[in-house]
Each structure stands twice: as structure tokens, then as C-alpha cells.
């Protein structure tokens, strides 16, 4: 039905290559999120998939059919744009039915399909309104409705939630996920927001500077990041990175503080980058000494910034701890929660 | 902007006054022209248009019938008549001497000399009575101050549109203006879309060329173009002037429309492309409706320019009645009927009436933001 396969996609603008050979397979019905910092090529990749950009080399297959040279309308895709791109002079029903009208679908059928999509998206009341009369969330839903009526093999979303306010974003996030579960259509979704990626995706593709850094299920990326970039990008607050050296089976920090046993076997004396998520610290006065330099309570948890072994680390805890700035605390790490990365390449050191 | 905190510039009143002055500068003569066009020649000569709404006061001099013709009624010699000679009017005062034309109230009987008594009624009826027979063949002069009520007439329009040939010229001007507005818009809209959204080699050069053509004065092309028209057999004809106006209007049209279309959100066009629209469909169903404000503003410009044009019409159209445009006819009238203000005012108003209607009908499209709500 709606499987997508990208093999060795390259795209360059003149001499500048922005996509350096992307390989990606999306199974039918899968919700795949492309995530990465701005400028990483994720939108370009999506637009290439939609047929709005030409690619320099590689092969795009949708539903087993090579679509490299196909016009967007023949690719059996529907796209939802960041700024909705509704047609301002048409009302909601006309916006949603436009593609069907272009395809010369009979009017009664268009009406039925639009009505059905409107019901799914709770837009029935709005069908006669112009986009200008809708709120941001409603416009976003119309944009999705426009995609739904076409019943495509693949939905493409290009940062659809970035223009909404924080509360609405959370709501639309669950609506999109619900929609996916209901329709079961393949979705390729681009975002720069790793929380969106984590909450919605079946599979996340982390991109950086035109390269795919890692592909995997959200928790897999979280628990086993392949490199420093993925480790730092996924998760909020971000992972702490410390310079460490392997000494006697222990991770020893720059000032000689031993933080615990090595997570993976590392050659004695080799220095590496130690990654620890803020929530994996345990406050234990008997452990490695640290000095609190900032306290930020968020309600559900408290964030400490502390000096540990000559570096600054972020610690979150659900315990109600009444430490103040300047207080000494002890920190240790939950067993098995440390990550070791090569100091030079940033790649994960496998055991 | 009113709710922005901070002291307002003290010159706001100056700005407002300037705006008011400009508005008055515009509307006052226009209104005067309109009022004048409904007055007859005598009214225009007698008083300014701003007095048109009030009854006009005038002095009237009437010579009564010869005293010989007085009839004998009940032992008195009586002369009767009406100072308006059958016309309508209202007398407010009368007199017997040119020095005091309004000395007496209507209805009073006054001594008219030689033993005669004069009475003038409001409706202009007068009676001269005398106990003795009046002699002589020259009648007495009666002076009356009359009040004519405000009066408007459409006679001028009747005359100007018919006998003076402006009606025919009006149709000729419409025949020139409407196609000369529609054709360039049609051509320019296509060109502007291509220059804004279709990628082809040399696009930037063409745009630069169009901008360059904006500054070329059209007088440069008049003679060569006319020669060309004669050579290819169009001659002095409506087709010729349509083509000429189209050519002269295209650079501005393409420039304006292209700049507007380039500003339309790219996503809308891409979205339409994903929805399955071809370039032509995108142009027709998305770009054209969204460009309506730009199309309307250019249409206003082009229509006014072709409507008011004299030069191009003189060059590319003949002088016969079925080809003479209104500006040409107006020019002729000013030569032949220079003193007839009622004719000129009426002609002038007919000439500006259509531009006024066009402007007021279309101006809302200039300010309406059709794009509101499309993005963000």
C-alpha cells in the first residue's frame, strides 16, 4: 500500500551538496518522523519525496513504484505544510475538495468525501467558512482534511505544528497520532522538535547536516543513542557529557573523581566522553561530591545545576530536596545508565 | 494606531488639515461642474453655481402698453398686463424709476405721475388706472425686482449628448477604453505568472527588459507604430488603437502583476501542485483570484489612462464622427463653443463621470487584503 523507500538520495544546489546519500525504508502504515536541527536537510528530503524538489541522484520508490520523474500529483501523496497553505479565497469545503475537483470527481462524491473528512476532524460546522475566519488549530485541521480526502498512500507533514502555541501543539499532536491510528496511512513527518518526534513516531530518523545519524524507535534512540549528536538531541533536558578516563574499571573524571564502573569495557587509560541523562543521577551524600550552582524547581521535578568533577552537569530529581546554591551534594549514577562515546568520533563505544 | 502609548506628534492637526484641503481641492470643482451642468446659460451668467440652490433675485424692466390703448372701465382709464409677459415668476418689489426699482411693496398703489396710479401684484399682473385719458404711444416703464426659484434642467445633457455629438463620442471612448483595458490585463496576467513562478532560462533578463521599457516614453513609438499599422493594413482603426494601448500599457501591467504574484506564498502554489493542479490550473484557480487586488488596481490605472487619452487617439484613430473620442470632441467644443459654459460644464462632467464611477466602484479592492488568513 504505502511503503516508501529512499535509496542513496543526493541533492546539491550547485556545488553544495545538502543531502549526502540518504537511505531510508518506511513500511506501510508506519509513522516515521524526520528530526534534526534546522538546516539538516529534513525538509528538503520531504520535499524531494513530494516531488517539489528534484534530486541529484538516488531513487525514490513509493508503493514499489519509482517516482523520481513523476509530477507530485502522480505520486499518490498528500502534503500538509507548515503554514497550512490554505487557499484563502475558497471556503473550507472548497479547500478540502479542490484536489478532487481537479481530478474531475463527480460533485456528489466530492461532497461525501469532504463531509466524511470533516466529521473525522470535527470541522462540520466550519465547512462554509473562509480560512481567515478560522483559528490556527482549525486551519491546521483543514490542511489535514485536504490531505485526508485524497486518500493517498502517504501523508507528508512539514513541521505542521510549529506555528501553533504550546498548548494547542500538544493537543494537535495527539490528534494527529489518533488520526494515524484511525486511518492507518503511512506518514512521513518532519519536525525539529524532538518531543514531537518522541511522542508521535513509530520510528525516528535523526538527521544532521544531510546525513542520517540514527534510525530507530523512540525509546531505542533514547536508551541507546548511536553517537553524541543523537544522545544530545533526543531527550529534554539534554544529556550531560563529561570527559572521563577509564582507570581500574572505573569512570574517572578530570579531577580524579570516580563516578562508578565503566558501562562498557574500555581500555585502561583511554579517555572517552561519558554521557549521563539528568534523571539518571541519584542524590546520595556518600557518593561523588558536587556543588550546587543553580536550583530550578519545575513542580513535577527539581532541576539542579551542579559542579561535578570540574564540569557543570544538570540533574533532575523527583525528590523534594532542599538544597540551595552553594550547598554540597553527592551524586552517583543509576547502574547501567551511563553511555560511553569515543572522544574523537563521538560514536558509541560498543561493549 | 491610536492605542500606541506615547505623545502624539503636535503636527497631527496639520496633517489632517492638509488632507482636508486636498479632499476639498478635489471634490469642490467636481461638484461645481456637476451643479453647473444642470443650470441654463442665463443662470450661469447671472450667478455662481454655489447660489444655485437659492432663489435668484433679478431686476426686470417692462414697458407697459401704449397709453392710447387704455380701456375705459367704470369711468376710469385702465391699462392691464403682466410684467412677465405670460412667463412665470414672483415679484418682490416694484418701482417706477430706474433709480429705485424696488421702492414699493407688491400690491400697493403708487402714484405713477400724470395722475395715473400703478399697482403690481406678486404674480406680475399690473394695473395702471387714470381718471383722465392717457396720451402718447410710449408706454410707461415698470421696474420690478423678481425672485426666480431654484431651477435645474437636464436640457444641457440632452443637447450635448445629441446635437453636440458627445453621446457618439462617449460610445467611441468606451469602444477604445474597455478592450484597451481588458487585453493588456489578459496578456500581462499570463506573462506575470510565467515571470514570477515558472522557471525558464532568461527569465531575469526578460524581467529586467520589462523594467527598462517602463521608462521609454510612448511618443517615441507613435510614428513608427502608425507606419507599421498602415503597412500591415490596419490603418487608423479601433484595432490599431487597442494594439497601441495594449503595447504602451503592458510594461507597467507586467511589472505590477509580477511583483504582486511573486509575493504570493510559495506554499499555496506548491500545495496546489501536490493537489494535482497544472500550471494553467494554478494560474486560473489560485493565482488569478488571489491577484484580484493587483488586477483591479492596474485596471483602474489603465482604464483612466485610456479614457483620458487624447494623444494616442489622435494618432491612431481618425477624425470622423464614428472614431472621434470624447477628449477629442471636448477639445473641438472648447474651440467652437468656448463661451458656452453650460455646454462645456456638461461635457466635462460627462467626461469625468465614468472615471469617478470606476474609481469608487473599484477602490475597495485596492485596500482589501485578500490574503488575510492564508498563511500563519
Task: Please give the structural blueprint.
The complex is a heterodimer of chains A (351) and B (376).
Chain A: E1 4-13, E2 16-26, E3 31-35, H1 42-50, E4 57-62, E5 65-66, E6 77-80, H2 92-102, H3 107-121, H4 136-149, E7 154-158, H5 166-183, E8 186-191, H6 194-200, E9 203-208, E10 211-216, H7 218-223, H8 228-233, E11 240-247, E12 250-253, E13 258-261, E14 271-276, E15 281-297, E16 302-308, E17 311-317, E18 328-333, E19 338-342
Parallel strand pairs in A: 3-8, 3-9, 6-7, 7-8
Antiparallel strand pairs in A: 1-2, 1-4, 4-5, 9-10, 11-12, 11-14, 12-13, 14-19, 15-16, 15-18, 16-17
Chain B: H1 12-37, H2 41-46, E1 56-63, E2 71-73, E3 76-82, E4 90-95, E5 104-105, E6 109-113, E7 116-120, E8 125-130, E9 141-148, H3 155-161, H4 166-197, H5 203-214, H6 219-231, H7 238-262, H8 266-274, H9 279-290, H10 292-308, H11 311-316, H12 326-336, H13 341-367
Antiparallel strand pairs in B: 1-9, 2-3, 3-8, 4-5, 4-9, 6-7, 7-8
Helix pairs in contact in B: 1-13, 3-13, 4-7, 4-10, 4-12, 5-7, 7-10, 8-9, 10-13, 12-13
Amino acid at each position: 500500500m504505502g511503503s516508501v523507500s529512499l535509496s542513496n538520495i543526493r541533492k546539491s544546489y550547485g556545488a553544495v551538496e545538502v543531502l549526502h546519500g540518504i537511505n531510508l525504508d518506511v513500511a506501510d502504515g508506519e509513522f516515521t518522523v524526520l528530526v534534526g536541527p534546522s538546516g539538516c536537510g529534513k525538509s528538503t528530503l520531504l520535499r524531494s519525496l513530494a516531488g517539489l524538489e528534484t534530486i541529484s541522484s538516488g531513487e525514490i520508490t513509493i508503493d514499489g513504484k519509482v517516482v523520481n520523474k513523476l509530477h507530485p500529483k502522480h505520486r499518490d501523496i498528500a502534503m500538509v505544510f507548515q503554514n497550512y497553505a490554505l487557499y484563502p479565497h475558497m471556503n473550507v469545503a472548497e479547500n478540502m475538495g479542490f484536489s478532487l475537483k481537479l481530478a474531475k470527481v463527480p460533485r456528489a462524491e466530492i461532497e461525501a468525501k469532504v463531509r466524511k473528512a470533516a466529521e473525522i476532524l470535527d470541522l462540520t460546522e466550519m465547512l462554509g467558512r473562509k480560512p481567515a475566519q478560522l483559528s490556527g488549530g482549525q486551519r491546521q485541521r483543514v490542511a489535514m482534511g485536504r490531505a485526508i480526502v485524497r486518500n493517498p498512500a502517504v501523508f507528508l507533514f512539514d513541521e505542521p505544528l510549529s506555528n501553533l502555541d504550546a498548548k494547542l501543539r500538544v493537543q494537535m499532536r495527539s490528534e494527529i497520532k489518533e488520526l494515524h491510528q484511525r486511518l492507518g496511512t503511512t506518514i512521513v513527518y518532519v519536525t525539529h522538535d524532538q518531543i514531537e518526534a518522541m511522542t508521535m513516531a513509530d520510528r525516528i530518523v535523526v538527521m544532521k547536516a544531510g546525513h542520517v545519524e540514527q534510525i530507530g524507535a523512540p525509546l531505542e534512540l533514547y536508551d541507546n543513542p548511536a553517537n553524541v549528536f543523537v544522545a544530545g538531541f533526543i531527550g529534554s533536558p539534554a544529556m550531560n557529557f563529561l570527559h572521563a578516563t577509564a582507570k581500574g574499571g572505573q569512570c574517572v573524571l578530570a579531577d580524579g573523581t570516580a563516578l562508578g564502573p565503566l558501562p562498557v569495557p574500555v581500555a585502561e587509560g583511554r579517555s572517552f566522553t561519558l554521557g549521563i541523562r539528568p534523571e539518571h543521577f541519584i542524590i546520595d551524600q556518600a557518593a561523588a561530591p558536587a556543588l550546587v550552582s543553580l536550583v530550578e524547581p519545575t513542580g513535577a521535578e527539581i532541576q539542579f545545576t551542579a559542579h561535578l568533577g570540574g564540569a557543570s552537569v544538570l540533574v533532575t530529581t523527583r525528590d523534594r530536596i532542599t538544597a540551595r546554591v552553594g550547598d554540597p551534594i553527592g551524586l552517583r549514577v543509576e547502574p547501567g545508565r551511563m553511555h560511553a562515546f569515543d572522544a574523537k568520533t563521538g560514536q558509541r563505544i560498543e561493549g | 494606531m491610536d492605542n500606541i502609548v506615547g505623545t502624539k506628534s503636535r503636527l497631527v492637526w496639520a496633517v489632517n488639515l492638509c488632507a482636508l484641503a486636498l479632499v476639498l481641492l478635489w471634490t469642490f470643482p467636481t461638484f461645481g461642474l456637476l451643479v453647473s451642468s444642470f443650470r441654463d446659460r442665463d443662470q450661469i451668467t447671472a450667478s455662481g453655481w454655489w447660489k444655485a440652490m437659492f432663489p435668484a433675485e433679478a431686476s426686470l424692466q417692462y414697458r407697459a402698453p401704449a397709453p392710447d390703448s387704455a380701456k375705459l372701465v367704470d369711468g376710469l382709464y385702465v391699462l392691464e398686463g403682466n410684467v412677465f409677459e405670460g412667463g412665470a415668476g414672483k415679484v418682490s418689489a416694484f418701482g417706477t424709476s430706474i433709480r429705485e426699482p424696488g421702492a414699493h411693496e407688491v400690491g400697493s398703489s403708487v402714484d405713477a405721475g400724470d395722475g395715473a396710479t400703478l399697482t403690481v401684484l406678486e404674480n406680475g399682473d399690473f394695473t395702471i388706472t387714470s381718471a383722465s385719458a392717457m396720451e402718447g404711444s410710449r408706454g410707461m416703464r415698470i421696474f420690478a425686482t423678481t425672485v426666480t426659484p431654484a431651477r435645474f434642467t437636464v436640457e444641457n445633457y440632452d443637447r450635448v449628448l445629441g446635437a453636440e455629438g458627445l453621446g457618439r463620442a462617449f460610445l467611441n471612448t468606451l469602444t477604445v477604453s474597455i478592450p484597451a483595458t481588458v487585453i493588456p490585463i489578459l496578456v500581462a496576467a499570463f506573462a506575470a505568472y510565467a515571470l514570477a513562478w515558472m522557471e525558464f532560462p532568461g527569465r531575469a533578463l526578460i524581467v529586467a527588459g520589462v523594467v527598462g521599457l517602463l521608462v521609454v516614453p510612448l511618443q517615441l513609438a507613435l510614428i513608427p507604430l502608425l507606419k507599421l499599422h498602415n503597412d500591415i493594413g490596419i490603418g487608423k482603426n479601433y484595432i490599431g488603437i487597442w494594439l497601441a494601448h495594449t503595447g504602451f500599457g503592458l510594461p507597467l501591467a507586467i511589472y505590477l502583476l509580477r511583483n504582486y504574484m511573486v509575493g504570493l506564498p510559495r506554499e499555496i502554489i506548491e500545495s496546489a501542485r501536490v493537489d494535482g493542479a497544472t500550471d494553467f490550473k494554478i494560474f486560473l484557480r489560485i493565482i488569478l483570484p488571489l491577484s484580484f487586488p493587483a488586477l483591479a488596481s492596474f485596471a483602474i490605472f489603465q482604464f483612466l489612462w485610456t479614457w483620458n487619452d487624447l494623444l494616442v487617439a489622435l494618432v491612431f484613430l481618425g477624425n470622423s464622427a464614428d472614431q472621434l473620442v470624447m477628449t477629442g470632441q471636448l477639445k473641438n467644443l472648447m474651440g467652437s463653443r468656448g463661451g458656452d459654459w453650460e455646454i462645456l460644464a456638461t461635457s466635462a462632467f460627462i467626461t469625468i463621470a465614468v472615471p469617478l464611477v470606476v474609481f469608487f466602484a473599484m477602490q475597495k479592492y485596492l485596500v482589501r487584503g485578500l490574503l488575510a488568513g492564508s498563511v500563519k
